[in-house]
Amino acid sequence: xxxxxxxxxxxxxxxxxxxxxxxxxxxxxxxxxxxxxxxxxxxxxxxxxxxxxxxxxxxxxxxxxxxxxxxxxxxxxxxxxxxxxxxxxxxxxxxxxxxxxxxxxxxxxxxxxxxxxxxxxxxxxxxxxxxxxxxxxxxxxxxxxxxxxxxxxxxxxxxxxxxxxxxxxxxxxxxxxxxxxxxxxxxxxxxxxxxxxxxxxxxxxxxxxxxxxxxxxxxxxxxxxxxxxxxxxxxxxxxxxxxxxxxxxxxxxxxxxxxxxxxxxxxxxxxxxxxxxxxxxxxxxxxxxxxxxxxxxxxxxxxxxxxxxxxxxxxxxxxxxxxxxxxxxxxxxxxxxxxxxxxxxxxxxxxxxxxxxxxxxxxxxxxxxxxxxxxxxxxxxxxxxxxxxxxxxxxxxxxxxxxxxxxxxxxxxxxxxxxxxxxxxxxxxxxxxxxxxxxxxxxxxxxxxxxxxxxxxxxxxxxxxxxxxxxxxxxxxxxxxxxxxxxxxxxxxxxxxxxxxxxxxxxxxxxxxxxxxxxxxxxxxxxxxxxxxxxxxxxxxxxxxxxxxxxxxxxxxxxxxxxxxxxxxxxxxxxxxxxxxxxxxxxxxxxxxxxxxxxxxxxxxxxxxxxxxxxxxxxxxxxxxxxxxxxxxxxxx
Length: 637
Prior knowledge:
The protein is of the alpha+beta class. Helices cover 41% and strands 16% of the residues.
């Protein structure tokens, strides 16, 4: 696991050192750079290494191929590197290390871009071909590892995090207004765009080649292809998942697991404990809100049933308020995901026991676990007459009967004739189109082109059923740009590697191959996964209904509102409307936010704006665990 960066253009040699060191938290164990003059230009690559495989200097990057033609920097893990090493050795390749980077380099030298089909892992790869003078960049199939790129004034940059671009004094950050509006509505900006104008994300399952001043992007994997496969059996699903866990335990440093009260992390912990009986697990809890937010009791019950060690990490309002600006800095973008803070505290505490953590992300998207997926079932079932009667009931009357905003949005979803439009109405629950038009002073355009892009990129035309629509949109965008981005940035902020067995591409393809009705019913979700693992996990866990992980954070924000929004720079600079900001950041007489999620979204944007655009706010360098960490360097530039 590493942080990588590179730059190609008429730039000074010292730029790559600063870019790389702005990623120090991603790789505190080693640092390396490489550069070469190219006529009037220069190619430079940099790496900060978190040593996981082969802790010796033999794993140092940038790494050069034996013939000197290829130079690689690489972030992530190739889980099947042992099998690939054997295959390459049989073809005549020799190796000087036991790590995966040298295997990756040999695979590319032998097979070129076709090596991507052989890789089982999470990765962001950059390889410079000195002979052809071209840069190859690739991202793993599900987008577990991020990679950003920027073309500006005949200079091409790439990095694991956007903040690395600030190491180049010629980088000019500006707000991308369309991405901003998407972030406010969706909580994230769908790839390829970011909140920064001109900064793009390489899409998951894609690679790009930069040659002669042009960056050409191609797709090498598509999740929808799994729809054409024969359905995987329950036994087959279990065997693939067991192997996915097994190869993710390959490490030369200690490995642990994150454990919540749900089925996904329990499955991973159960399978891990069979291979590593002394596995340690960590669970996050909150010091307020009771069982509504705290899953430590459920997780403790699971840990006891599996006879595994469990540590509990408590999150507090005081620590959250003080650390949020720095966590937004780690995120790079205004992602309104309020679980970033507990995940950071979880990672920072777990780092004391292990450097690699297994987790349950990805199961909901490929085995259809979210409760709102069942709404399409009800949409198909419900009669037009019944829905018409419900739709005619005034919203005020429905509210008086205790209907919440979530129930109202659910009804709107059910009423949609298009499942994709239903997903959109659900996903944009933070700020609707009309609310966004009043909040933003930057003239929000029609959001439909964003949905059209998401529909096309998710290959919904290949879906076998409207039951596949929301999961495929989630798999391609919400998972990648929202959940995995936050998980990657928060774990890497603590110099911890996160591995997700459910995101093994073989497991994803197996899950998607099963017809939707076999995975999701009117009340039960993830039916296939529950059947496949029923003998491995405690019965009380297998029968638990899906409970979204939540936190009391939206109710901890009054101090943040008073500190950052009463004189908001995004209002001062004409980006957000002052009246609307005030409207969405009101509190009742107990101090609880009336619109906590909307208020939190606005707070995150204001913090991001101060950190990255006006630079009037600085991250707390004391939080950065890496020696001479990135936050300290950032505050100097």
